[in-house]
Design brief:
The complex is a heterodimer of chains A (445) and B (127). Chain A is α/β, with parallel strands linked by helices. Chain A is built from 20 helices and 16 strands. The chains are: A alpha/beta (445), B alpha/beta (127). The interface between A and B is medium-sized, with 28 and 31 residues.
Chain lengths: 445, 127
């Protein structure tokens, strides 16, 4: 057995542990990669052996402060260094890294060993608790959302008031948090107030606070949400539900950057960025005389309109996968996906409650599902009921003229070659796997 | 036809991460010939600044190593084509691109004597 190769005994041990392990030679080229490392990085041993570890590991620290290089230089171990790697497929995986030097029996350093642990599940839970969402947490490949992504960094950099309009469940709060976390105010508080959830008088004291003696039970000063959000961002959800008298007070905050707590005679200065949101069309409310036009124009400095989930159907598979991963981490489950029929139902549903409804559907399925795959019987009853009228055995979408023509050409060529897929693929100039996929898609089997 | 190609660099290699490359190599190609090239320092740039660099330099094509779907979409929505998951020495990779022989996931790496990724004999640019 060659001295430089890990022997079979250690290979079996290393392949049976859940942490990723790889070893490198003195140049930083990979000499061994265990099974868990293959799974976490997405690269097989065959692809990785002999390549530089930074090309496989692709951690955010590889190019600036490589842990293994540091260990080889100082000959000191590094334990649990947090980092983020980029999987072969492009997903970012949070990990913790530990490193050590590898020596031969004569004590000479022959390379290094790096062990790493996948922290994805822990990070999902942490994010749920801290609610520190960024642009990367918004799952979408829809062009309307990407148009918003393009302007969001510039919006965040400015201190302008933002108005987010979109139906319930489209992610208004998520975008507001992303703007806050991209802005210079990110270390300061993000305070949310639902203007539609509180009666008028309560909302005023919630927003601006009160001073001792303002009313019978006001035994001491209470700071309002504007005071709590000082230096940060205040998110006024359902701003369209605000009463006319409060609208005037909010207008004053926007114009003068000051407000008066209930019962106070002196104004207080405030340094707060306002992000307002509404599921109602504010311009329509203005024309109906239900919302002050001067306040509308003050709020509407930068406007973001969020599309309905039905307008971004291409995001459904991504979102379904995202929520499955999220609930796997949250509930400690290992659900791998949905059955074909369940997926068909989800892809054909309208989602009047938008992304929040989809999230609730997946959560509902997680509670009922006892297997690895979510089946139709785990989905909410109203979803399966609404599909009774529509035949679920129909194709997912109506075929476009291009798809029809493509299916015809493939069918003809297949017949010509008496079902020989290799020859068919060659004649069509496509890969055999692509041909197989298309045969399956058009039901030509 | 004029085309601008940008390659995020790590030393003389393709940077393993688009979003953390310390340097950006921008090459202007006209009718298959290099007419201008420059290297920009990017070490302290955040993602919006990196995207701004590519846009202000009117880059048409990015050749890079690892890139996350968010960045990929950001570049795509700005009309920039991306050949990603490419690894190896930047000059070798760029020459392969000029010859039209580069594809996503291409690994141009000498791993063992006479062994290159996906090839048994000799470097691909000599084939």
């Amino acid at each position: 057995m060659k001295r430089s190769e890990p022997d079979k005994f250690f290979r079996v041990i290393l392949n049976s542990i859940a942490d990723g392990v790889f070893t490198t030679d003195g140049d930083g080229r990979i000499t061994f990669l265990n099974k868990a490392a293959e799974e976490i990085t997405g690269f097989s041993s065959k692809e990785a052996l002999g390549r530089y570890c930074f090309d496989i590991f692709r951690a955010d620290i590889c190019q600036t402060r490589c842990a293994l290089k540091e260990t080889l230089r100082t000959k000191k171990e590094i334990i649990n260094l947090p980092a983020t790697i980029l999987k072969k497929g492009g997903q970012k995986i949070p990990i913790s890294i530990s490193t050590a030097v590898l020596k031969n029996e004569r004590g000479q350093i022959i390379g290094g060993v790096e062990t790493f642990r996948d922290l994805s599940a822990i990070e999902v839970l942490k994010k749920e608790l801290s609610q520190r969402y960024t642009l990367n947490d918004i799952v979408s490949k829809n062009h309307l959302i990407h148009d918003i992504f393009n302007i969001l960094p510039n919006i965040a950099e400015s201190d302008s008031t933002v108005l987010i309009q979109g139906a319930s469940g489209t992610g208004k709060e998520l975008f507001a948090k992303a703007i806050h976390n991209l802005s210079r105010r990110k270390e300061k508080p993000f305070i949310k107030v639902n203007c539609g959830a509180l009666p008028d008088t309560l909302l005023e004291s919630e927003l601006f606070g009160y001073v001792k003696g303002a009313f019978t039970d006001a035994k001491k000063d209470k700071p309002g949400r504007f005071a709590l959000a000082d230096g940060g961002t205040i998110f006024l959800d359902e701003v369209g539900d605000m009463s006319p008298s409060l609208q005037v007070k909010l207008l004053r905050v926007l114009q003068e950057k000051e407000y008066e707590p209930l019962g106070s005679t002196s104004p207080r200065k405030t340094d707060v960025r306002i992000i307002a949101a509404s599921n109602r069309d504010l311009s329509k409310l203005v024309s109906e005389g239900k919302f002050r036009d001067d306040l509308y124009y003050r709020l509407n400095v930068v406007k973001i309109e969020l599309p309905l989930l039905s307008q971004r159907a291409e995001d459904l598979p991504l979102l379904i996968d995202h929520f499955i991963q999220k609930f796997n981490a949250k509930m400690g489950r290992q659900i791998t996906g949905l059955s074909e029929q369940a997926l068909r139902l989800l892809l054909n549903y309208d989602y009047p409650g938008n992304v929040r409804e989809l999230e609730n559907i997946i959560e509902h399925a997680f509670v009922l599902c006892k297997k690895d795959v979510i089946d139709v019987d785990c989905l909410p009853k109203e979803l399966t009921r609404s599909s009774v009228e529509t035949d679920t055995s129909l194709p997912l979408k109506e075929e476009s003229p291009f798809e029809k023509a493509e299916a015809e050409v493939i069918e003809k060529t297949l017949k010509k070659h008496r079902g020989n897929r290799k020859k068919t693929a060659q004649e069509l100039g496509i890969d055999r796997t692509t041909l197989w996929r298309k045969i399956k898609k058009y039901g030509l089997v | 036809m004029v085309m601008k190609v940008a390659i995020p660099l790590f030393r003389n290699r393709i940077s393993p991460r688009f979003d953390f490359s310390p340097e950006l190599w921008i090459i202007t190609v006209e009718n298959g010939e290099v007419v201008h090239e420059e290297k920009l320092l990017m070490a302290n740039f955040n993602l919006p600044q990196r995207l701004d660099q590519l846009i202000s330099n009117r880059v048409d094509q990015v050749i890079c190593g690892g890139i996350d779907p968010f960045c990929l979409n950001q570049l795509g929505s700005r009309g920039i084509s991306v050949l990603h998951n490419v690894s190896g020495e930047a000059e070798v990779i760029f020459n392969l691109f000029l010859k039209g022989r580069l594809r996503p996931g291409f690994c141009c790496e000498k791993r063992r004597r006479g062994m290159f990724c996906g090839r048994k004999k000799g470097p691909p640019w000599r084939a």
